[in-house]
Design goal:
Elements (H helix, E strand, L loop, with lengths): L5 E7 L5 E15 L2 E8 L6 E5 L9 H32 L22
Antiparallel strand pairs: 1-2, 2-3, 3-4
Length: about 120
Amino acid sequence: MAAKVNRTLTVTKRDGSSYTHVAEFVRYETVANGVVAVEAVCCGSALETSRHTLPFDVASKTEAEILGEINDHLDRVAKAHAAHEWAHDFLESLAPTAPPQPSPPQPVPLTSNSSL
């Protein structure tokens, strides 16, 4: 079984709690002659999937260069997901504690129509 390639990034939320984002290399695909795309997922969520295309002529790269490209991509994926979470946490702090409730509809008074 191949070793998992992943990167972790821990962020601190406004309430002081922390959350660790784990971006993991999940698959690769040859998209053209000499061109390979790698796919990464952050926190196991399909919604946080990202692809990165390695430069042309991947066969001329060393293993260290290919792994470096993958690790750089994993870092970007984890940072992007963490930034999204941080922004969501910040925006929640700006929102009112309870959303305003709509006013209930007012009854329409019935009128009599003597011509009926």
